[in-house]
Each structure stands twice: as structure tokens, then as C-alpha cells.
Amino acid sequence: MKKNNNLIKIPNINSSDAKFEKLIYDVEDSLLKKHSYFKKDFGHLCICSGGTTSSCAKNGFTTLDLRKNYNKINLDRESNLVTIGGGVIMGNLINHLEKHKRSFPIGLSKLPGAGYILTGGVSPLSRGYGLAIDNIESVKGFLGNGTFISLKKNQLSQEEQLIWEGIKGAAVFFSIITEIGLKTIPSNPIKIIEGFVNPTELSEIIKLSEEFPENISLQWIYAKKVYVYVFAELRDNFEDKRTKECILLLERYSSLEKNLYKNFNEINFFPKELKLFEMNSNYHSEVISLLGEDLNTDLQIFIRCLNEIMENKPNNSCYIASQQLGCKTKKLNYGSSFFIHRKSTWKPWIYASWKKNDLQEKEVVMDWMYKSWSKLKRFYPNIHLAQLHNHLSSHREELTLAFGKRIDELKTLKNICDPQSILPPL
Ligand SMILES: Cc1cc2nc3c(=O)[nH]c(=O)nc-3n(C[C@H](O)[C@H](O)[C@H](O)COP(=O)(O)OP(=O)(O)OC[C@H]3O[C@@H](n4cnc5c(N)ncnc54)[C@H](O)[C@@H]3O)c2cc1C
Q1: Residue whose CA is at the smallest distance from ligand 1 atom 33
Q2: Does the model's pTM come out above 0.90?
Q3: For the chain, which domains are there?
Q4: How far is the CA of 171 from the centre of ligand 1 (A)?
């Protein structure tokens, strides 16, 4: 099919290269209600919000692109609640909020769209403010059966309760969300301590980080070399005693640099020096995200395992990285959700990438991804389903490891809300 050059580019290279059946760009509520867009023979519909995953457009499938018509952002200055369309990208959200000295716990990149929020949303600020789903106050949208829904956190009927919980972590399987109401947070200055370290130093820094207070988090990335990123939110513009102590402990690492940023908006988590292949148009990729608890006494075995994985990596574009959650994300007082692994304190991900069109390399790379996952399971047994892999053989296992005991409830929701399986399959 011929591509329309007026469409906005899809950032994920697999998806932007896809020979989709149809890309529907002028999406409106009336279309979502009627399902007039859908022909059963084409399999499920793909939905595009930020367009950062390999599942928002596929060969032979139809995509509904929410980016053009569901891109509004509106902050209520009295309640500090923000309402965003289902096609808003996180960079635009925090840009808008910044004008009013507010912010939101977005992830490590400004590119992801509403998919970031609906799949959980792990931010460097999550230890202090919860996951993105913990900050949802209301949603509007359409179930897969065409029914319009408008749900508010404290005004749910008994029948709506399960749908509400499902939306927080598993919405993508049974609904198309056109509007999300979110709590916002104050925009505070951020101190970043970052730089290259060796694997032994990484293990020491992980050890320190497992004692960090809730306003500090560690993220690291092991590509060609190891890069660490310690993120400290200075609440009320103030570096408190505990924060100072933690930052002081990092001073012994001479390769680390300290920088103060006015706000989250100014930060770029993946500096160019890392030479990541993420947006390289000659490469395709898959990402799998894991979840697990503090490493504690397993730290040394973990570093050995990590080194072994990296020694076997098939090319320079593959990497392993991790971000820290915990503290507020462990609390259950946000109400129940389909992000069930609340004890998790680490979310590592495996980035597997190959020269597009090189099917032989793809096979080797995917084998590396699965073998690495298998090795890491001992430390991180669960899955954060941030990327849908219904096109991969691991989909079923990922579903089980993401939703655990709630998988049957999710199947029930899917049967009721999306009986024809118009949306991505379970
Ligand atoms: C560079 C980068 C950094 C990242 N950092 C983080 C991070 O720090 N923390 C974290 O938790 N995740 C992170 N992610 C993962 C990312 O948040 C998820 O992959 C998310 O699903 C992407 O959402 P999207 O809207 O950009 O993607 P899309 O590809 O547009 O959508 C992803 C899936 O979500 C569904 N979907 C999207 N919008 C809607 C909607 N409105 N209604 C119904 N279904 C919808 C679609 O069916 C699609 O299959 C990162 C991803 C990238 C590429």
C-alpha cells in the first residue's frame, strides 16, 4: 500500500516500515462507536498513540492513529488535574505543564504516548509519586464492542470497578482510550549524577541505590560500556540532609558528573555519547521489560550474569538497561490495578536489535534476547508488559508473568468488552 506523506512519522522503525493495510488518521468518536472501520478478515486493529512500539502498525493490519485528533492537553489550575487526549506524547504533556510550574512522572523518554500511561508507566519519579497509572483520576474512551465509557476514580459503579482496574495496566487489550485525567505534581529542580563506570562500580552503586530515599532513583544502561544516571528530585527547591548524604557517597566515583536542572523537562536520559541505535532507521528491534525485587546478596552473581550476557551480545546495537522503582509504587492504597507486581523495585529491559532485512541476524539476536531473559529470570521473574508481543512466540508466557493470578479476570474483561477481539489479542 502506498504511504501518505502527510502523515506524522511513526518513531518505531519496525512500525514505520510496516506495509499496513490502512492507516486511519482522521479518527473521531463516531468512527470508534460504529466500528465501521473494521473488517474481521484483517485480524485485530493496531492503535497508535506515541508510536514507539513495534505493535502500533503491522504488515497487513489496519492502524487507528490517535495522534492527530486526540492531542489536546488541558490543565485545570484550581484542581491541578490535567486532561489529555489518547494520542498525546509525554514530551508535549510535560512541556505544557511546565508553563504552569507543574509536572508528571513521565518515563525516560519524551517520545512515548498514552501507551506509557496505560501500561503502567515507570518513571524516575515513581518512587516518590507512584506509577503513571496511580495518578489516573478519570478516563473516557470506547470498549472493543463500541460502548462509550466515561469513568471517574471515586464514582464507579460495581460493574465499572473491574473495567477501571483493567484500564490501569491492561487497557490496550479491551479499550481505545481517548481521554485521560491525571493528577499533576509540582515541578522541582533535579540533580543528576551521571557518567560511565565499570561493572564493579555499577555493583557498588546498585548497592547504594537499594538504600536510596524516595526522591532518588538509579537508572543504568549497559551498552558498549556501563552508564549510570542517578536522579534526585530536590523537593521545595531544597537538597535535604539525606539527599546530600547519598550524593556525597557517589563522589568517590571520579568519572561521574553532577548537574543541576531547573526541571524534569530539561533532562535528556540517553545522551548522544552512548551512541544508541534506538532511532537508527537501518535497524529493527524488540524490547522485553522485566520486573523484580532488590538484588541484596545476589548482587555479585547478578553482575557476573550481566557480564556474561554482554559478552555474548550479537552486535553493538543490543543492550541491557534498568530503572528503579519501589517506595511509593509498592503501596497499595491507589486501589487495585492490573500492574500486580507491586513488590518490584527494578525494571530492567533487554533491547534486541538487528539490521533490518537481515533475517539471519534477526534470528541470532532474538535467540540472544530469549537466552538473556532466561538468565535474568532468577533475579527478575516477572514481566512489565510495556510492549505488546502478540507477534512473538513469547506472548503467552509474557501475559502469564505480567498478570499472574489476574489473567482469568482479564480474559473475562476481554470476552465482555471486546468479544470479537477487535483489539490486540490475549
Ligand atoms: C525510548 C523509550 C523509553 C521508554 N521509557 C520508558 C520508561 O521510562 N518507563 C516505562 O514504563 N516505559 C518506557 N517505555 C516503554 C513505553 O512506555 C511503552 O512501550 C508504551 O506502551 C509506549 O506507548 P506509545 O503510546 O508510545 O506506543 P504505541 O506504539 O503508540 O502504543 C503501544 C501500544 O499501546 C496501545 N495503545 C496506545 N495508546 C492507546 C490508547 N489511547 N488506547 C488504547 N490502546 C492504546 C496500542 O495498542 C499499542 O499496541 C519507553 C519506550 C521507549 C521507546
Answers
A1: 115
A2: yes
A3: 13-65 (no CATH), 73-186 (3.30.465.10), 190-404 (3.40.462.20)
A4: 12
